[in-house]
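REQUEST FORM: STRUCTURE PREDICTION
Request ID: SP-0412
Submitted by: Lab K.M.
Chain count: 1
Length (residues): 156
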Amino acid sequence: MKMLFKQKFFSWFDRYDIYDEEGNILYYVQGELSLGHQLRIYDFNHQEVGLIKEKALTLLPKFTMYVGDQEVGKICGDFSLFTPKFHLTCNDWIVTGDVFEWDYKVVNSKEEPIMIVSKKIWQLTDTYVIDVFEEQNALYSLMIVLAIDAAKCHNS
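STATUS: Completed
RESULT:
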């Protein structure tokens, strides 16, 4: 399953539309005013399905993931010299990026791929192609990409 993650150009807060391969909207993401990023995820019927909340004032980025009202885990930045690295507390997934922070790979502890993310360059807004290997991992994969994008702002 492929998803296209595209940030809205004119927006006071973070706003993203997530499309499938045919150009249909799968998710809408809306940022909210808070100390640290707070991003609500809605499905194509405008029903809230998830939330990402950044913990403010931390050395390394840390995000809490919610599905509905239930906390499902955290996405935590790990210290790394040349490439970004994150881990998830809800499962055994590891997220690693390239030195330019454009491409990311998510694998489980057995090194089996979960998703691959590539940033499209030469775009006016942040645009990523998300290749998810199993459809049931789509929402968590989207949450990871949102956290990575917000972590880049954290580090800037």
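NOTES: The helical segments are 138-155.
Reviewed by: T.R.
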